[in-house]
Design goal:
Elements (H helix, E strand, L loop, with lengths): L1 H12 L6 H23 L14 E5 L2 E6 L1 H12 L13 H14 L5 E6 L8 E4 L7 E4 L1 E11 L2 E6 L9 E2 H7 L10 E6 L16 H19 L3 H22 L2
Parallel strand pairs: 2-6
Antiparallel strand pairs: 1-2, 3-6, 3-9, 4-5, 6-7, 7-8
Length: 259
């Protein structure tokens, strides 16, 4: 950066005498350049071309590290992720673990440390979570559990957990609102809510892959491509459920053969 600063000053001094207006213009341009260089040099080496939002701060929430941002910057992150065409947000029926993992990975590349929010129900005690189908009017989608990334938003002097979930939301929403959207059919439903580190993949916490594990990332992205194909097929949801049932039957046959 020092070399660039010296070259800029040298070029200006060699241009001859300058009036006050040109000096002001030069100062503003130099300030802008140095600010850009300073932010670029402070970026993590593994970040992409998008700068970490200026409002981002790393804080602790329930003893877990997470990024806190302004609401505007958090909303911009939502739009950035929603526009990732290779993440099939339109296939809300399944794949929330894969979507949440990929979104978390992309956020980390931007210098953002997310958490994850898992909501789940015990089917012996409560009905399933339920949301309107995003693409089919009058239809609904039911889940045993659902997951999406979480960041904190600086709001009225407090840090509020907000969920990033383009599969069922049009914007970032507070965690409490996100959860309530899945329980409108039965507000008294018993829902378990857990905030975990971003590397927890499944609701039971059995799988916690490293985000640098390229084999796992490739496998996860392949799953997303499969969900994308289902989303582009008019009969994709029915085909997916049929295949899911067949896989479950195979597993039951394997389990029974062990006895």
């Amino acid at each position: 950066m020092r070399k660039i600063f010296f070259c800029l000053v040298l070029c200006y001094s060699c241009s001859g005498s300058a009036n006050e207006d040109s000096l002001n213009s030069f100062s503003k341009a130099l300030d802008k350049t140095l600010r850009h260089l300073n932010r670029s040099e402070s970026r993590p080496c593994n970040s992409d071309n998008s700068l970490t939002p200026s409002s981002a701060d790393l804080v602790l929430f329930e003893k877990k590290a997470v990024t806190a941002l302004s609401k505007k910057d958090a909303q911009n992150l939502f739009y950035d992720l929603k526009n990732k065409s290779d993440i099939p947000f339109e296939f809300s029926l399944a794949g929330c673990e894969q979507r949440a993992h990929e979104m978390s990975r992309l956020l980390l590349l931007k210098g953002i440390t997310p958490l994850k929010a898992f909501v789940s129900v015990d089917e012996d005690e409560s009905p399933r979570l339920q949301v309107p189908h995003p693409q089919k009017k009058g239809h609904i989608i039911r889940w045993k559990y659902h997951v999406a990334p979480v960041v904190l938003v600086k709001e009225n002097g407090q840090l509020v957990p907000y969920v990033i979930d383009p599969s069922i939301e049009n914007k970032i929403v507070p965690l409490s609102e996100w959860r309530s959207h899945m329980t409108r059919h039965d507000p008294k439903i018993k829902v378990r809510t857990e905030i975990t580190t971003a590397n927890q993949f499944d609701v039971d916490g059995r799988l916690k892959p490293d985000f640098k594990d390229q084999d796992f990332n490739r496998s996860n992205q392949e799953s997303l491509r499969e969900f994308k194909k289902y989303s582009q097929d008019p009969d994709g949801e029915e085909n997916y459920l049929f295949q899911l049932q067949r896989n479950e039957e195979r597993m039951m046959m394997i389990d029974s053969s062990e006895y």
